Amino acid sequence: MRRSASLAVPFLAALLLAPASLVAQDAVPGKAEYDRWCAGCHGVDGKGDGPGATTMMPRPRDFTTGRYQIRSTPSGALPTDEDLTRVILDGMPGTAMPGWRDHFGEAEVRDLVAYLKSFSPFFESQPAPEAMEMPSAPGADEAALAEGREFYQKIECNKCHGEAGRGDGPSAPTLEDDDDLPIRAADLTENWFFNGGGSVEEIHERLVTGLNGTPMPSFQDLIAAEFMTEEQLWRVAQYVRSLAPEEPPVVREVVRAGRVEGDLPASVDDAGWDLAERYYVPLVGQVIVRPRWFSPTVDGVWVQALHNGSELALRLVWHDPSESPDPQWDEWQSKVLALMAPADSPADASPDTAAAGASEQGPLSGSQADTTAVAAASPGASYPDALAVQFPRSIPDGMERPYFLMGDDRDPVYLWRWESGQQASELLARGLARYEPLGGSQPGALVAEAVFDQGEWRLMLRRTLDAGGIEDRLGFEPGRAIPMALFAWDGSNGETGAQGAIGSWYFLYLDQPTASSVYVTPALATLLTAALGVVLVRRAQRRARNDA
Amino acid sequence: MKPLRHPFWQAVAILVIAYLLIAYGIPHLPQLVGMESAPVPGSVVLQYMVTVLVGVLIWVSDSDERWNRFLEPVRATMVDGDKRWLRLGLLIALPLLVGLLAFRQVRQTVAAPPSLRSIHPAPPSSITFRGRPLNLAGLDNPLRADGSVAEDYEEGKRVYYQNCLPCHGDGLDGRGHFAHGFTPAPLPFNDSGTIPQLTESFVFWRIAKGGPGLPKEGAPWNSAMPVWEDILTEEEIWAVIVFLYEQTGATPRTWAEAGEGGE
């Protein structure tokens, strides 16, 4: 239905002359802002079914149910206006809901809150919810954390969140929300992704009020039943907070491989790693080429690197609740695939890949259309966990380097790929779908050692610095910035091929041996300055004596 | 004793105030006009301080009387018997400070090589879209031809929320929930330096060809922008362009503004 300019004028005139009722309808406070900024995910009718919803896990809130996770009110109750305001302003970390603090003014948020409430009949029919009175926080010490740990077990937090809090408890694969959709147990070691905020007070509020619509219960009834005291629930909150670092990790562009004399750490959990600096590399979904992946499990990898002048070792640590393939997670996998696969169905657009021919336009092969040949995961199959480290084939002199999405025809990447239950391999990759082996089992080939421990993979990869004369195999040179990128897959989440977690180029820098000038120059500068000072003082004193 | 009447202490005060202004005052200036700020680099601070120091020395040596008064406390520290501990302390502390500064200069530091990326590189005059030639120069958004964009806005919104949102964000501010994983960061469309500076045909080119279609000066190997012609139809791309401008309240650059032949 195309409108013409000639129709637009009378339409505008009609609007200006419209009866008061029509204007009033248009002027429902909050509706205009809601339709413009919120409906894309939450839907025009507030059902959580906007066009963006299918790309999200968890799905956007359905406002018609009146079920809200982040509240200051008792379990099952409606949220207060302040609760809704807080979520609009601060967002829901770890989900697609952003904070709108920079975007909406106070009055706009007030109108939005009123408008959100109008989607559900419950706000009309039930008495106004009231915030619960929270007992104030007791001070925390070692003993308090031990007591928190004790109650963490007693009230069965570990059942879902796991012994180490990494969201890997025995019940984790079975969790569903009230809409029967799969939902993850939070990784308690990453408090910056907690939906309701990561402070002790916020964690405590979640424990008291529960998260409506999710398997996370309120523990207030255990206090009422005198199973535990208010203080002991605070202890649990303090313990949970202690599982995460003080501050969220800072991302740094250069990963430094320190130089050690003699042998590199012999194993992945060798004490030799304790002193090596840790770097955090964030990963996100592969949303660039089909089949895309909007709900990756792995959200970041901790990297440590050491070398000794002849060998390089990387230690990579990431969280993944399942040691894939794991039959306990089979059902989870099929539920996730059922939920997320339609997000990328190519029904509406079927590019003629043969004709795409973008390659003549840019320096890269452009269209990665050949990756559409990669099959998406199928619900019945099982896949391993995997991790890939990308490098260029040789250290670039300028800023040019291969395409970060596993290279392309013109400039492939040199790849280290590890899969759970297998040895790591060295490959040449020309895009997400096309690998070929590089080198073989020659001395100095890539060696891997992996440990899965309570929702955490720890992987050590080791190789000689020297390329061994094999074409396209990177030689590592100390003192140079070497591009490096990391990708990760969680097999039990249905991740394989193009569908996984990806990250940008970073740099790996192998420290050079410390030059003696680093020590000599400052010492010399100190001595010379001191000598000059003494001479000046002597001269001044002599002159003063002569004057006297 | 009024220290602030004395040229030596006046000189010290000027240097201290200058340092505070340069290192802590200047970074607040951009914020006054609502711009983002960054700390002043150490080399710039050093340069400014040397300039101030030279100015101060010229001033104190301007007259013999002031110069002599300026030197009084310096001489006293070097000569006077009751200042021997201060003298000793300075003779130890100053050389150590110089040694520390020297160490900070020569120790091994590591920085990523600079990436000299052109954010809006010159577009080609024509491209192929799914194999079909398309002339970019002078090209306008065909969806605007019928005078109304209300429907196209809705279609563009659907396309945006199903495809662009994870990186460019609900607020079109380049802060989607996947944005933190990518370098360079996704473009914020609500920034006056982005789409308001561009013609719609330029935006079409960037969307259709994505990161890999950038010329070398645009660092195509780093960009996470997909090649959308593999995923979206021509109509969908024009619709999402309508959405970008309508949602941010920006107007596209016209060909008259852009001049003959492009950006």
What keyword list fits this structure?
heterodimer; A: 548 residues; alpha+beta; Cytochrome Bc1 Complex, Chain D, domain 2; Immunoglobulin-like; 4 domains; 12-stranded mixed β-sheet; two-stranded antiparallel ribbon; 14 helices; 14 strands; globular; disordered N terminus; B: 263 residues; mainly alpha; 2 domains; two-stranded antiparallel sheet; 9 helices; 49% helix; 3% strand; elongated
Structure, explained:
- The complex is a heterodimer of chains A (548) and B (263).
- By secondary structure, chain A is an alpha+beta fold.
- Chain A contains 14 helices and 14 strands.
- In chain A, strands 1, 2, 4, 5, 6, 7, 8, 9, 10, 11, 12 and 14 form a twelve-stranded mixed beta sheet that branches. A two-stranded antiparallel sheet of chain A has the order 3-13.
- In chain A, strand 4 and strand 5 form a beta hairpin.
- Chain B has 263 residues and is mainly alpha-helical.
- Chain B has two domains: 3-106, no CATH class; 126-258, Cytochrome c-like domain (Cytochrome Bc1 Complex, Chain D, domain 2, Orthogonal Bundle).
- Helix content of chain B is 49%, strand content 3%.
- The longest helix of chain B has 23 residues, at 84-106.
- Chain B is elongated, with a radius of gyration of 30 Å.
